[in-house]
């Protein structure tokens, strides 16, 4: 068996495909009585779209996010959202900015193959920046076509020329860039004169997701990451207020997926699902994509398709209709969905987990 490594899928804590948090507001209604609010702007208010990756819906109820709560109290909050399948970072972030499901925009997994383009995974910067992977029309491309200034401070897809168009302002993803610097950059954009100020901008925070994968969605480390993201939101709100912009920006805060805990004893080796001689594992984790060897396709389908202990497999054309998934040519021929709390990874990664005491 050959597999396509995707280090983002080797973590201990898998994605819960039924949870996504969305908090949205118009900042014109987001001030307390003691907070001065600028009068309505003479030009259309810019939109700032913020993602806190991996922020589970119920994290808002932990009592450790006063700044997000400030938004909830004076704006609106959805109780939950169902992410697109598969509930992964790149497919869902790109769905948010295109309005398309992964089966239509082409980012069908964090790790995938294309007959012409080859291999895609998160760590492959050249692939991430190749516009031909990215279908649909992200919001910054639509803004460009409408003659509107736009900017992205990290967002999946923003590093690639989609339809030969890049955001007016963008930067390659840098996990080491402190949150405060990200916020201050965006505040600088929003403080510009109307002639240059972005009408659409994005901002991205990833460390809640990383902490959840590394330590568990209910761990102290994840709580610390939640607080860090909330502090960044507070810095943004305070910065807008100081600049007299609190009533002049439309702010939307979203997340791409939730998480459910797993453990080494709830992990299956992908080699136990399909052998090297039988096919290739294109993606793994909670959603496992398998491409059988042509000469073994019928036999592998017969053996894999159906219910197994802790997972179920389908032919791509027979996936549950509610997933809206399986028609894009990048979707592997067989998709196996792990039960909640279970994981499937290569055996070598299982050994690394055990050695690390995971």
From TrEMBL:
Sections of the chain in a coiled coil: none
UniProt superkingdom: Bacteria
CDD domains in the cross-refs: Enpp
Species of origin: Marilutibacter maris
Protein's recorded name: Alkaline phosphatase family protein
Xref: PROSITE patterns: PROKAR_LIPOPROTEIN
Gene3D superfamilies: 3.30.1360.180, Alkaline Phosphatase, subunit A (3.40.720.10)
InterPro entries from the UniProt entry: Alkaline_phosphatase_core_sf, Phosphodiest/P_Trfase
Entry GO MF terms: hydrolase activity
């Amino acid at each position: 068996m050959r597999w396509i490594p995707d280090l983002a899928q080797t973590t201990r804590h898998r994605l819960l495909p039924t949870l996504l948090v969305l908090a949205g507001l118009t900042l014109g209604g987001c001030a307390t009585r003691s907070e001065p609010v600028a009068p309505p702007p003479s030009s259309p208010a810019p939109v700032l779209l913020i993602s806190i990756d991996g922020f589970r819906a119920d994290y808002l109820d932990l009592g450790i996010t006063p700044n997000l709560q400030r938004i909830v109290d004076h704006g609106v909050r959805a109780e939950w959202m169902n992410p697109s399948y598969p509930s992964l970072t790149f497919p869902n972030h790109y769905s948010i900015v295109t309005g398309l499901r992964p089966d239509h925009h082409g980012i069908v997994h964090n790790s995938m193959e294309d007959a012409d383009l080859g291999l895609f995974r998160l760590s492959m910067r050249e692939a991430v920046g190749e516009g031909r992977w990215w279908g649909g029309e992200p919001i910054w491309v639509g803004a460009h076509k409408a003659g509107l200034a736009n900017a992205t401070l990290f967002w999946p897809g923003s590093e690639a020329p989609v339809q030969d168009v890049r955001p007016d302002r963008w930067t390659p993803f840098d996990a080491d860039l402190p949150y405060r610097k990200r916020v201050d950059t965006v505040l600088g954009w929003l403080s510009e004169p109307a002639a240059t100020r972005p009408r659409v901008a994005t901002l991205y925070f990833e460390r809640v997701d990383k902490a959840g994968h590394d330590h568990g969605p209910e761990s102290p480390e994840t709580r610390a990451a939640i607080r860090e993201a909330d502090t960044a939101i507070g810095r943004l709100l305070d910065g807008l207020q100081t600049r007299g912009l609190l009533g002049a920006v439309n702010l939307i805060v979203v997340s791409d997926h939730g998480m459910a805990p797993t453990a080494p004893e709830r992990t299956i080796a992908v080699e136990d699902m399909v052998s090297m001689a039988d096919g290739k594992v294109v993606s793994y984790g909670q959603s496992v994509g398998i491409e059988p060897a042509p000469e073994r396709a019928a036999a592998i389908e017969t053996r894999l398709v159906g219910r197994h202990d802790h997972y179920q497999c389908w032919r791509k054309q027979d996936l549950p209709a509610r997933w809206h998934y399986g028609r894009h040519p990048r979707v592997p021929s067989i998709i196996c969905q792990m039960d909640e709390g279970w994981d499937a990874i290569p055996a070598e990664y299982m050994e690394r987990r055990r050695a690390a005491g995971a």
